Amino acid sequence: MQTTFSVTAGDFTKAGTASSQIKRMLKQLGVPQHTIKRIIVALFEAEVNVIAHSFGGEVQCEVTPEKVFVRVVDTGPGIPNLSLAMKEGWSTASEQVREMGYGAGMGLPNIKKSADILEIDTAANNHTDIRMTFYLNGDNQ
Amino acid sequence: MMKLSEVIDVIDGKVLCCTDLLDKEVKFGFSSDLMSDVLTLRDDDILLITGLANVQSVRTAELSDINAIVLVRNKVATQAMIDMATDADIMIITTKHSMFKASGLLFGKGLSPIY
After folding, report:
1. In this complex, is the C-beta atom of B33 within 8 Å of any C-beta atom belonging to chain A?
2. Which residue of A has its CA nearest to B36?
3. Measured between CB atoms, does B67 come within 8 Å of chain A?
4. Which residue of B has its CA nearest to A21?
5. What is the pLDDT of residues A34-71, one digit of tens each?
6. A113 vs B56: CA distance, rounded Å
7. In order of start, what are the domains of chain B with their CATH numbers?
């Protein structure tokens, strides 16, 4: 089963809409609650990143009997220094993003902790492509 | 574990939605305006205590499997917050107390910290 949602840059009123709908879909498919939680936390972090930092993008989710694959792709401007962005507490978030309760530099590290496999392709002035795999029989709690 | 009805008594709270959850129990309290921090929690049965009165606190609670939010210092919940919380089965409670006092009162009655 596969589904795709578009994510609009800067629109915090809709932040979490894609994550919420995918959460409901995973529940309907009978994915275990703890697995849903780590999928959705990672997805929501990535969705907020698209809204806060990018020109817009989309969320793709594919569910098979063995795994849930989530891909979050935006259209730029890319992350100039990925190793810095993976450090807890490092952030380029605006004051507006921080007022929403986000932008503390915990997003990418939290995604890494949540996913069984995390792959990120990005570069300055390019898109960011985050691919997360969650095994349905795995447990990284 | 503490029933939400007891939480309401302890902090002199008012319920804004989902009164059917009064018998639901919470084990942990987590006080924060930083939703990024809330998203790092892996425990269940958490009560979120916050001063962040916008839809992001409700959305974060929904996606973190948190069933109850306490808004401190009589922060006003918007209708959008109440609608989203109702849809997601999340009780919103308001209290006149500060985050510090509400947390202290609940801690004193046995609600556990996560860290």
Report:
1. yes
2. A102
3. no
4. B63
5. 999 999 999 999 999 999 999 999 999 999 999 999 99
6. 22
7. 2-110 (3.40.1390.20)
